[in-house]
Amino acid sequence: MAHIQTRSQPDIRGAHAPDSAPELASAFASTRALSEALVEPLSDADATIQSMEDASPAKWHLAHTTWFWETFLLREHAPGYTLFDERWPFIHNSYYEAEGERIARFSRGMLSRPTLDEILAYRAHVTQAMDVLLENPEHEPLIRLGIAHEQQHQELLLTDIKHALFQNPLGPAMWPSDGAGPETGASDLGWHSHPGGIAKIGHQTGGFAFDNEGPVHRVLLEPFALADRLVTNGEWADFIADGGYETAALWLSDGWGWVNENGVRAPSYWKGDRHFTHSGWQERDPNAPVTHISYYEADAYASWAGHRLPTEFEWEAVARGQEGETASHDPAGGNQLDCAAPPLPVGGTNLFGDCWQFTRSGYLPYPRFQPAEGAVGEYNGKFMSGQFVLKGASCATARGHSRSSYRNFFYPHQRWQFTGLRLAKDI
Predict the structure, then answer these.
(1) Which of 15, 20, 251, 393 is the most exposed place for a label (fewest CB within 10 A)?
(2) Which residue in 46, 27, 35, 28 sits closest to 9, CA to CA?
(3) Is the full-model pTM beyond 0.85?
(4) What is the pLDDT of residue 94?
(5) Of 347, 22, 354, the residue nearest 187 (C-alpha)
């Protein structure tokens, strides 16, 4: 089958705006187009490789997000729809137990077939079939979930292929570098102070949100301050030079074991004064935010700096503007993904963008949380164990995807995502 070309790089700003039902079809189309634009630089071989169990092949992301639309919308709600290929749900299901058996996660990289061309043809088929459902308001909540789901996989596609290309000793570039590099600059560290008190936490503004963002509940905060920028590469280099990775007192016990067992002495993708990017090996900007660090590393750095990581509730309270007492922070602001281009942290004073920010809050259900019924109820609730909450958005997050209440989550050792840190302190 012919390769489906998507040479344009769609602008997705506002694609996930809440309460914009007339724009639902446009949001769906632009999201689908962006996914395909992201893989245009890749060969079939590039799109097939799986570099570790945490990651998935690029073409699997393309197929899985398409399986989601086919399974939860077209199969259930489109009259007369038949599966594109009845064999494919087994290889494209991720973790939905209610949808039956599936291929082991670590085996996704063994799927040389279907080819990238065949998966792109599958995507075109499903995208066209969705036309009949997009204008029916009854399906809007599930369609918005599908858009958000595919945006999550766009970010995973970018981080997974970065990890895969990094394994190649030739240091291949997914996109060529223009040689100029983005303008960066790190200001002196300032603080957003918060007086403490009772804060309302959770999704409150209407429009789409994931189930783990609610219910709205109250928390009591003590006075604190949140840094007005992310920790930089240069500051992290100072941490390394000062023996940060060799000083046991700075580390959680599990973190110290992880550092020594794995020989960790720097963030992922660092080598000397260079780092690996989607444009290959480049000089590392000391003023840009540090990224690709684990929770263990973030916590150790905060201890070294004489501060701490924020809680997710402190972070959200500042993002909301202290219940109207100060200006709120724009979730669509900062350095986020607008088109198919190399994502790279650049720095700034936005609370959102550049890197997902570790908090010291465990990923647990909010009071009165109840997972949704059916297979979609497996989306977030089943992962509420052993992980930590990250807030904000990264340079690989589709702009408009995140919110103040958004709860990203990863295990404490994982660092292949664009993860960084913003310091907090008691006042």
Answers:
(1) 20
(2) 35
(3) yes
(4) 86
(5) 347
